[in-house]
Amino acid sequence: MKRRSRIIPFLCVILSILLMLAGCANKTDTDTSTASEIKNVDDVKVSDSSVIYQDDDDDSVVVMYLTVSQGNEADNTNHTWSEVNAHSIYYYQEKGIERYKVEGILQIGDENGPTQGLLGYGEFAPNCTVQIRGATSTRSPQKSYKIEINKNEGYWREQRTIALNKHVYDSVRFRNKLSYDLLKTIPGAFSLRTQFVRLYVKDLTEGDANATFQDYGLYTQVEQVNKTYLRNHGLDEFGQLYKATMFEFLEYDAIKLKDDPAYDQKAFEEILEIKGDDDHSKLIAMLKDLNNYSIPIEEILQKYFDEENYFTWLAFQMLTGNTDTTSQNFYLYSPHNGNKWYFISWDNDGAWGYEEEIAYNNAPDGYNYTRGISNYWGSTLHQRVLKSESCRKKLDDKVNEIRELITKERISEMVDSYSAVTGRFLASAPDAVYAPLTMTEYNKILQMIPNEIDHNYEMYKTSLESPMPFYISEPTFSNDKTVFRWDPSYDFDNEEVTYKFELSKEYTFTTLISSQDNLRVAQAFTEKLAPGQYFIRLTSKNESGMTQTAMETYEGTDGIIRYGVIGFNVLADGTVQFGI
């Protein structure tokens, strides 16, 4: 009997395997085809992490103990605590030196002292460095501090850089925190973690071994926007991140690629501070297209910005009255492999203060160009967006959406919660010594804050009906005439705009050299001016009777800011010194 060959079954098995592999190959090809259709980076939704805030206790107070000592010259910590606190930022700028630092032991605890299991417990060697932080606030006797935990010394809430802000110019000491705690609940926004902190400092820098902890009062810790922030918030830590210094979305000569022979990082960072990846090609491409007026702004927004984030950021700033955000106090972030840019809010100290400014700081009541959309007219991006009717509609929708989220009732509850903390510190030393207002005034201001949204909304609506602000040009001379020119004032409803020109030797305009009204062209003429000091005041008006001032302002010795006013000198040689 002939034995059956095993080769044929074996070949059948091999053939089956090959067919299966071929099938898998075909499936892989199909999957690859499907994968190629997956959205690119710019189509993926980028948003803030909600998890990062889940353990926040908004009105709690963390106690920090800081023991400072002198370090060494190599890392600029060979200074006393008195030296660190003695100088403002302007001292360091004048001398061209880095801010003084000291070494420190940072410990976290409660009113009974450092707590076992928390950062710094039982430490005897320095685990951080300390320096003052801030800009104009560094002139105050009460300083804010930047504490940097040394590498390999741990983290506090996943952060190594801890900013403790005294908020000396905020009479209630919680406006910044109020904004950030609201932002973390608003879709499309990026926020920062904040925490009330009571700080105690023991100063060993003068050699006093018996020094004890001194109470420095209440601070607000505000999360720093850096690569650690990006990582903790679920963003791309390798992406581009810039902090606006004086940035109006123009094509700046100083913004160049880092391999450009003319690249000057110092000049670059006078416009934008580099906080992330230093490949600036994406930024340059965006600015080039944005300043190309042949490309519709709708295309620019779709390609380079996340519309929900942009309109959310802009609407929130206007509704809270955070006016100092036209060219600074924001970050721009973009994922490494994407083209879109996202706004991250920074420094909300100027928000929630409209009524207080009127009541206590001689601010003018009613509308001026710093309220509503006109405040952003000086920025190329914002101006182009606002000139688009469809974009204004998107902004209006976002304004109304946010108004429904941050109601007067909600703000009142948060104000009550925060003031229960800040009030007791402002009523006692050391903070009471430097408090700008009495507790009676403080309590009055607390009642004002919930009204801010309504006030700012009214200013926003008024700004839509008003002409836009404009810039005044330097006067020139032609034969026996002085020529004054200014940019045209834009009106959203295409109404005719006329101008009122006034010239005086006094910024109060008590006595006028010239007054010309109903000018239909953006220029005026006077007799040739003799050497001396002069002031211009310019106002525009549309057919509906709504008025607007020039962008320029002048603050006299009385402390009152006058909108639409600028001063200049005519010198003996006939030249003009403009913008005094």
What does the model show?
This protein is an alpha+beta fold. It folds into three domains: 51-226, no CATH class; 229-463, Orthogonal Bundle (Phosphatidylinositol 3-kinase Catalytic Subunit, Chain A, Domain 5), CATH 1.10.1070; 467-578, Immunoglobulin-like, CATH 2.60.40.10. Helix content is 30%, strand content 23%. The chain has 16 helices and 23 strands. The strands form five sheets. A seven-stranded mixed barrel has the order 1-2-4-5-6-8-7.
Overall tally of structural domains: 3
Instruction: Find the structural class using helix and strand composition.
Output: alpha+beta
Approximate strand percentage: 15-25%
N/C terminus separation? 118 Å
Identify the strand order in the major beta sheet: 1-2-4-5-6-8-7
* CATH third-level topology of the largest domain: Phosphatidylinositol 3-kinase Catalytic Subunit, Chain A, Domain 5
Overall CATH architecture of the largest domain: Orthogonal Bundle
The helix content is 25-40%
Largest sheet: 7 strands, mixed, barrel
Global morphology: globular
How many H/I helices?
A: 16
Subunit organisation of the chains: single chain
Number of strands: 23
User: Tell me, what is the CATH class of the largest domain?
Assistant: Mainly Alpha
Low-confidence spans: pLDDT under 50, at least 5 residues?
1-35
